Amino acid sequence: MTVESGIIIAYGSANIAAGEESGYTAFGQMDLGYLFNTGNNYQSYNYLGSFPMREDDNVTGYRFAVWAPGARSVHVVGDFNDWAEDQTPLLKNDNTGIWTGIENGAKQWDRYKYRIVGADGRTYLKGDPFARHFETRPADASILYDPDEYQWEDEQFCSARVDALAARPITIYEMHLGSWRRHADGNFMSYREIARDLADYCVEMGYTHVELMPVMEHPLDDSWGYQITGYYAVTSRFGTPADFKFFIDHLHRSGISVILDWVPAHFPKNLEGLVRFDGSPCFEYEDPRIGEHREWGTYVFDYDKSEVRSFLISNAVFWIREFHVDGIRVDAVSSMIYRNYGRTEYIPNVNGGVDNFEAVDFIRQLNSVVRENYPHVMMIAEESTSWAKVTHPVNDGGLGFTHKWNMGWMHDTLDYFETDSYARIWHHDQFCFSMVYAFSENFILCLSHDEVVHGKKSLLDKMPGDIWRKFASLRTLYMYMIAHPGAKLLFMGSEFAPFIEWRFYEELEWFMLNYDAHRSLREFSADLNRFYLTERTLWIKDRSWEGFEWVDCEDRDNSVFIFRRKGEEADRDVYVALNMIPVPLVRYRIPVADSGRYRIVLNSDDVCYGGSGYPSNDDGDRDFAAIEGDWKGKKYYVEVNLPPLAGVYIQKIRE
Description:
With 655 residues, this protein is α/β, with parallel strands linked by helices. The protein has 16 helices and 30 strands. Helices cover 24% and strands 24% of the residues. Helix 7 runs parallel beside helix 9 (357-373).
């Protein structure tokens, strides 16, 4: 008998692909368990969990392994033994705390759980922490699954992936799979059904990436996937692991990268999950002053435990290797790195401060492993504080992420746009503030799901004024985001502006596309994305002042902002002029660097986008010659008729 699960082990920071062909028989259980116990088994999912045993290409049963160091006894119960409590005992390795055993009668799709008599003397029925598949809620049993049954076809896409830090255009479509589209009867679409529609839609709309809110197994729809019980299993709401591999495979073959939201910060208190797994705080901190997030009703992983580090880092590697994902967005980083996050009572660190040193060490270890072995993978932090060097290398004292959500830009920008136009004169500096820190981190500008729920209103409804002003302001917001330094992220549906907030329990209001204003806004969103993708000036120098220049940010009275995006060729630079009041500005002077003729190449007020059509499409209104004369520190300027509540992109006309 041989086990073909393909164990791959990491020693410290060594390349985890080393020894890939060694197989299970190359290492003893003690070696594998020791690496898990020391926090250095970065593919522990190939040792812990359930695995088919094969002989002459036939499955002869399943092998089980589970870490439960404080348990008094562990049995596997399931369909294969009629859920008998004493039929399939596991044996404990006292040195590692890992229980192992074999059930010859087990077969794929059988349901199972671990029956654990815990350190506290109580009996628990637990799901497998490393299970690849689960029943669909409200049922919660693990399901035996053969992980090797899918044949990938994305070799060309994967071989062409570039370093995560390479200069490139990034437009991310953030989505919740359960509410993007549904069948007419309200039932979920499958991973395979969504894949075909989504790939075509992203290509049509000019998105380069899809970011999925958590797809790991979770018991409560209302949590949107952020309270996970099955870290190694995609939710069965939409199909099997093979179906999800098809989903990613199909997107890859359409040129679309996939980012997963991931939650190593906390887990729910559901008894079938990780909580008190062996009758003691096995995965979580023991002291509730650091071990609970009471506002979320969750427990916090104990990052000081080496086994927890192996579990979580292996999980990130699992999604990268087994599912070919291109990025991981780490949720709630702030709640990990601060001991007092969301708490009135907390345990200070050894220095008496609020920093969670062990969580910081875990994050650095995680990012070092991924960066060293999978440099193409984006590691994205959702971090909302002023913690320094989030996206700086670990050897430079940073946390090692490749990207960070720019929460400050999101809040300041939305606050500004929610302010009525007559009052924006008093918020002028707020609009400009993002450029004070724009290059301190490698940012992603995000208009995410968090901003369109819980009474915050949809993006369209946040905009002040009548319907025309709402749409005009939203187009200007999108134009500003595309031109501002940083990668871009937009939550699903926002591209056609539903009036109501996002509802996780039903599909988006696609019927709104029957109305001109919403259909025109989607066309504008697509044209913006396509302009961004093809115009290298907007992203080639995205991370320093070499790519950005304030041209005029001092016109408070008119609430006008003008900046210049600079690239490799000066005559391809893009001048961005934003008029934040609902009044056209005639012959407005814009300083430019060179002589020659200039043209409005994109106007958010065009009639085809639902605007007023100002200025007209006559050459005299769209094309104009630079006038020699000192203006705002430049030797030349152009006179442009700026449309109301709108933005324009201007470029020099090349001979």
